[in-house]
Amino acid sequence: MVKDKILVIGASGQIGVELTLALRKIYGNANVIASDLREQNPLLEGTGPYVSLDVMNKEMLHVQVIRQNVTQIYLLAAILSATGEKNPNLAWNLNMQGLLNVLDIAREEKLHKVYWPSSIAVFGPTSPKINCPQQTIIEPITVYGISKYAGEFWCNYYHQRWGVDIRSLRYPGLISYKSAPGGGTTDYAIEIFYEALENKKYECFLKEDTYLPMMYMPDAIKATIELMEAPAQNISIHTSYNISGMSFSPKEIADSVQHHIPDFKISYKPDYRQNIANSWPQSIDDSIARKDWNWQQDYDLKAMTADMLANMK
């Protein structure tokens, strides 16, 4: 049996670092090629091959896929919600053209599988707030959300028309200690840990009662790999699966941190990211993911807080 050769695009980002390391454990270091426009993340150094790659340069990307005998691509390069609002055209171009380049190459080279993340940013103010279902009203208000929703339809189109096996998750806010947040609206939930340990205080850019769907990075990595390893006949969603770990507010995570650091103080100064957060659901119904490939998360807020603080100390 031919071993899969995996290319991770955007490997130095928040998800990319941990996903690359997890994939190398499963497939072997030499069979997972990390790539990014940025410098290689220090955590990846010495763990396997690394190439400098721009997903917008289709010819260069195509050459790498052929040269390295790539059979699977994980496309993680993207401009996230808060950063995207500062430069909408750039966010649209990168998020959209990068995906189309990968889909075209996947079709031409008959790649086994492609992974591309979507986001809860596809939902908008008209989407249900509580237990937002898989199929519902979707009217995103950020360029990030618009690009992700359009991308979901491109994925579905390439699957229906050319049989490209592309799989996707609508990630909630992701929390991790291994790599820095990437300019998202849920970044407060990472910053709060750093500030609590260093300064014992944090000024949050969202209101204290802003509930958002969140997930601890080990769960996000687990969900991604489980989805990609599920038999093709089990996959019923070819746009992007709803996925959920937990939902909490800034006040709740602050209380959870105070349990470990009693003199920690939080204050609130909502900025432009509050409007983005207000447009998203407070919780997500991921029952289809649970049915199709037996998804279940390992971490709740209490377990995540303990793990984050233990590792960051």
What does this structure look like?
By secondary structure, the protein is an alpha/beta fold. It has 2 domains: about 5-170 and about 215-240, NAD(P)-binding Rossmann-like Domain (Rossmann fold); about 175-215 and about 245-285 and about 290-310, UDP-galactose 4-epimerase, domain 1. Helix content is about 40%, strand content about 15%. The protein is built from 11 helices and 14 strands. It has helices at about 15-25, 60-65, 80-85, 90-110, 145-160, 190-200, 215-230, 250-260, 275-280, 285-295, 300-310, and strands at about 5-10, 30-35, 50, 70-75, 115, 120, 165, 170, 175, 200-205, 210-215, 240, 245-250, 265-270.
Question: How many helix segments?
Answer: 11
CATH superfamily of the largest domain: NAD(P)-binding Rossmann-like Domain
Percent of residues in beta strands? 15-25%
Coarse structural class: alpha/beta
Number of E-type strands: 14
Rounded to the nearest angstrom, the distance between the terminal CA atoms is 44 Å
Per the CATH scheme, the topology name of the largest domain is: Rossmann fold
Residue-averaged pLDDT? 96
What is the topology, as strand order, of the major beta sheet?
Answer: 3-2-1-4-5-7
Which spans of ≥5 residues are poorly predicted at pLDDT below 50? Answer: none
So what's the CATH class of the largest domain?
A: Alpha Beta
